[in-house]
Design brief:
Number of helices: 5
Largest sheet: 7 strands, mixed
Strand order of the largest sheet: 2-37-38-40-39-1-3
Distance between the termini: 30 Å
Radius of gyration: 25 Å
Shape: globular
Structural class: mainly beta
Strand content: 35-45%
Length: 533
């Protein structure tokens, strides 16, 4: 639906863009805002699909335990997947030198993980000659080519070094009932030889978004961190993994049908903490519960840690190994519940301490440092940075526009080094170091291209609904915007409904691309949107 949107010259000055306008009511179908627009005299490039889609994409950072280096992926997109390039880059955490490329292969790397001594980097990749992704280790200190560590037929992802650096933990998705890798190879060969492609389901889930869910199930493996070492399956043969509803959570790093178990080494290196569900087959009529478990590295039945009506994710140990942290989302009759930060004393058992019970926002990510925990949370169209200290959540900096993601903190540096990804709807995500509540750019892969585009930061404003609620909105203006002209207004409603319009670049519903033909785009975070408690 499109209406005319009237914009008149300002009668009062607004703050620097993005501006903030507060309205009490919204009458009829025409919304009138008084804005002060500063028109750029320099010629700008139009916002096109090509300009946005083909712009380099900087992945989330991973800082070395010693705090000296930061690694991340950079993807150079292409419309033909065969022409797309993604490599690992490295930059000094103090910003003393520009980023440099660590890998140069056609296929990308994922799951970057440092060794405890900060000398080696593990990742998952499908290199030349590989039929599936395997785990590779690159010696960053000595240089040279990355060495393939695993050779499992079902592929490997999410590597993690043991606390002493001698062992490697990873996840692989295997066929239920397959006792070892030879059995997996046999089943895979039988599937490939079939003369039909029909899928038969006798339970849920059937698909995840636009992908069919296959029959593979996640398992945890450990092996020596050296080429040719034999991997040992920690879950096959256990009662837990044999349950029909056993599974992990869908991966968010492009892993397709594979599921994540969010596995982490215990501080003594003798066990693994992970999350899993036993009711994924009931997902058609309720949210699966993801509980915390611990399994010995030597094998055996996993021990259930959490037993309350809540789902857990991202188990993380404190640098001193005395505490276990995790994100916790209660499962109630409500469709949406805030995600809280939970903590146990290690070894953990029973109900945890809820650290953010008094914080009326949902925790998106966290990083545990000595004496302080950093976290991000949605807040009124942004994803802001906070810290938790002495039981109180405090804003880490004056409320900036945009969104943080990918928090990573050094665990062995004399002074903790915190890095993160930050971007907004007119600033593609780049890597920043966070110091004393301020951020310092470590990368600028997209800055020049973004500066050339004819796009304006969105205007944030609120109005008060009939029920007395403050409703947040973003107003996105078209290229060459003239405040003395009338523009058709397009009001876009987000789905979910537990979702939020963010001041962040998105390729799926890009605000500026929608505004490019000459529309003013109105994005309303209506009642029920996330980011408001």
């Amino acid at each position: 639906m499109a209406n005319h949107f009237d914009i008149a010259p300002a009668h009062a000055a607004l703050p620097p863009e993005p501006g903030f306008v507060k309205l009490r009511t919204m009458r009829g179908r025409t919304l009138v805002l008084f804005v002060a627009a500063v028109l750029s005299l320099a010629a700008k490039d139009p916002v096109t699909h090509e300009a946005l889609y083909l712009m380099k994409r900087v992945g989330d950072p991973v800082v070395s335990p010693g705090g000296k280096w930061v690694v991340f992926s950079v993807t150079e997109p292409a419309y033909d997947p065969k022409d797309q390039v993604s490599d690992v880059w490295i930059v000094p955490a103090n910003g003393s030198a520009p980023p440099r490329r660590l890998t140069a292969t056609k296929s990308g790397e994922s799951g970057l993980a440092w060794s405890p001594d900060s000398h080696r980097l593990a990742f998952s990749a499908k290199r030349e000659g590989d039929e599936v992704n395997q785990i590779y280790i690159l010696d960053v200190a000595q240089g040279g080519e990355a060495l393939r560590i695993t050779s499992i037929s079902t592929g490997a992802h999410s590597p993690r070094f043991s606390p002493d650096g001698s062992m490697l933990l990873f996840t692989s998705s295997v066929y239920p009932g397959a006792a070892d890798d030879e059995a997996n190879k046999k089943i895979a060969a039988e599937r490939k030889a079939r003369k039909y492609n029909a899928r038969l389901y006798d339970g849920f889930p059937i698909r995840y978004w636009d992908q069919w869910v296959g029959e593979l199930r996640p398992r945890l493996f450990v092996q020596a961190a050296a080429p040719g070492a034999k991997a040992r399956d920690l879950l096959t043969g256990t009662r837990l993994a044999s349950l029909a509803g056993f599974g992990g959570r869908p991966r968010t790093d492009g892993g397709g049908q594979e599921e994540s178990l969010d596995a982490a080494w215990a501080p003594d290196g003798k066990s693994i903490v992970f999350i899993a569900t036993t009711d994924r087959d009931a997902g058609a009529y309720r949210f699966p519960l993801y509980r915390l478990y611990e399994v010995p590295v030597t094998g055996g039945e996993p021990r259930q840690i959490s037993s309350d009506m809540a789902s857990y994710s991202s188990p993380t140990f404190s640098p001193d190994g005395k505490q276990l942290y995790a994100e916790r989302t209660a499962r109630t009759a409500k469709v949406y519940n805030l995600t809280r930060l939970a903590r146990w004393s290690w070894p953990a058992q029973g109900d945890p301490e809820i650290l953010t019970a008094g914080f009326d926002r949902s925790v998106e990510a966290f990083a545990v440092g000595p004496g302080r925990v950093w976290l991000t949370a949605e807040d009124a169209g942004h994803v802001r940075l906070y810290w938790l200290e002495a039981g109180k959540v405090q804003p880490a900096e004056p409320a900036p526009a945009g969104a943080y993601s990918g928090l990573s903190i050094s665990t062995k540096a004399a002074e903790p080094v915190l890095v993160a990804s930050w971007g907004s709807s007119v600033h593609p995500a780049e890597i920043f170091r966070i110091e004393s509540g301020a951020r310092r750019a470590l990368t600028s892969f997209t800055s020049a291209e973004a500066e050339k585009l004819d796009w304006l930061p969105p205007l944030h404003f609120t109005f008060t609904s009939k029920k007395g609620r403050t409703i947040h909105n973003m107003l996105v203006r078209p290229p060459a915007f003239d405040p003395n002209k009338k523009y058709p207004l397009v009001h876009i409603i987000h789905g979910g409904p537990n979702n939020m319009w963010r001041d962040q670049i998105t390729l799926r519903w890009n605000y500026h691309l929608l505004a490019a033909p000459g529309y003013v785009i109105l994005l309303t975070n209506y009642t029920g949107s996330t980011g408001f408690g």
